[in-house]
C-alpha cells in the first residue's frame, strides 16, 4: 500500500523481490495511472541489546540536542503519552525557528520505537550499543539520509520531576539573567526583559510572564546537583500564548547560579 505521504509499505519477505507498483490518481476530472519497477531488498535486523518497550516509554519525556554538519543547532523534545499519542517540539538555529507537531508512537518488532506523523512521515529510533547513567544513546532514522546518533535525556515530569530549590540569581548560556524570589516572583533580562511569577506544577517549572505568556521548563536528567548555591539547572523550555496555544520552543536552557 502507499500512504497519502507517498510511503510504500509491504509485507515482510525472506528474499529480495522485484515488484511493479501501480498508482492511480484523479485531478480536475482527469485520471492518470503510472507504474514503477521497484526492488525490495531483504536485510537482517540486529535487535538492540537495550530494546525500547512500551513500559519504559509510556508517560515519559525525552530531550535531545546536536550540531549538524553545517554547524546548525537542533533540539527536539518528545513527549510519549500513555495513550500512544506523541508531541514533538523542534528548534533549529540558524534560522532560530521552532515548531510543534503531533503524532503517534508504537514499538517495532526488534525493540524500535516508531514515530508516525501526519502526511505519512515516519521516524525510527533504536537504542545504540551502550547506555549512560543519566541518558541513553539512540540512533534516529528520519528517512532523509544516514541515521544520526544522539543522546536522549529523560526529562521531567516522569522519572526526573523538577526538584531544584529555585532561589537567587541565575544566568543562562545566552547571558540572560533570571531572578527567582522565594515568594514566587521573579524577573529576566531575556527578550527585552520581563517580570513573572513562578511555581512547580506536576514536576514542571511554570513561569507566567507579565504579558500573559507561559513558559514550561522540563528539567533534564543531566542537571548538575551539588551543594547550594552551585547547582546548575538544565531544562527544555516551551512557551505558550495566554490562550494556551503553542508559541515557541527555545530548545535547551542551562541556568548557572551567580
How would you describe this protein?
- The protein has 258 residues and is mainly beta.
- The protein folds into three domains: 1-43, no CATH class; 54-155, Calycin beta-barrel core domain (Lipocalin, Beta Barrel); 168-257, Lipocalin, CATH 2.40.128.
- Helix content is 2%, strand content 53%.
- The chain has one helix and 18 strands.
- It has one helix at residues 54-57, and strands at 17-27, 30-40, 61-67, 73-80, 85-93, 97-107, 113-117, 122-131, 136-141, 148-155, 168-171, 177-180, 185-188, 194-201, 204-209, 214-219, 233-240, 246-257.
- The protein has an eight-stranded antiparallel β-barrel with strand order 3-4-5-6-7-8-9-10.
- The longest helix has 4 residues, at 54-57.
- It starts with 16 loop residues before the first strand and ends with a strand.
SS field, number of helical segments: 1
Total number of β-strand segments?
Answer: 18
Broad structural category: mainly beta
Compressed to H and E, one letter per element, the order equals: EEHEEEEEEEEEEEEEEEE
Give the overall pLDDT as a whole number.
84
Tell me what portion of residues adopts beta-strand conformation: over 45%
Oligomer: single chain
Summarize the main sheet. 8 strands, antiparallel, barrel
Tell me the CATH superfamily of the largest domain: Calycin beta-barrel core domain
How many structural units, i.e. domains?
3
**CA(first)-CA(last) distance:** 58 Å
Shape, principal axes of CA atoms: elongated
Amino acid at each position: 500500500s502507499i500512504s497519502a505521504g507517498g510511503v510504500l509499505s509491504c509485507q515482510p519477505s525472506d528474499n529480495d523481490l522485484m515488484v511493479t507498483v501501480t498508482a492511480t490518481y484523479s485531478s480536475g476530472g482527469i485520471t492518470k495511472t503510472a507504474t514503477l519497477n521497484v526492488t525490495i531488498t531483504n536485510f537482517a535486523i540486529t535487535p538492540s541489546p537495550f530494546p525500547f518497550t512500551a513500559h519504559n516509554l509510556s508517560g515519559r519525556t525525552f530531550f535531545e540536542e546536536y550540531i549538524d554538519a553545517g554547524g546548525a543547532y537542533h533540539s527536539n523534545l518528545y513527549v510519549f503519552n500513555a495513550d500512544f499519542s506523541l508531541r514533538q517540539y523542534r528548534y533549529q538555529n540558524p534560522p532560530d525557528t521552532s515548531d510543534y507537531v503531533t503524532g503517534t508512537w508504537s514499538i517495532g518488532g526488534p525493540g524500535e520505537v516508531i514515530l508516525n506523523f501526519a502526511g505519512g512521515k515516519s521516524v525510527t529510533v533504536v537504542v545504540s550499543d551502550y547506555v549512560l547513567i543519566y541518558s541513553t544513546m539512540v540512533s534516529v532514522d528520519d528517512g532523509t539520509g544516514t541515521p544520526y546518533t544522539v543522546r536522549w535525556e529523560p526529562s521531567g515530569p516522569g522519572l526526573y520531576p523538577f526538584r531544584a530549590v529555585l532561589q537567587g540569581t541565575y544566568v543562562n548560556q545566552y547571558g540572560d539573567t533570571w531572578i527567582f524570589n522565594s515568594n514566587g516572583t521573579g524577573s529576566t533580562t531575556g527578550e527585552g526583559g520581563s517580570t513573572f511569577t513562578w511555581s512547580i506544577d506536576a514536576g514542571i517549572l511554570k513561569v507566567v510572564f507579565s504579558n500573559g505568556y507561559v513558559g514550561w521548563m522540563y528539567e533534564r536528567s543531566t542537571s548538575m546537583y551539588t551543594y547550594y548555591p552551585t547547582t546548575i539547572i538544565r531544562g527544555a523550555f516551551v512557551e505558550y500564548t495566554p490562550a494556551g496555544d503553542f508559541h515557541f520552543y527555545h530548545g535547551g536552557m542551562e541556568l548557572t547560579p551567580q
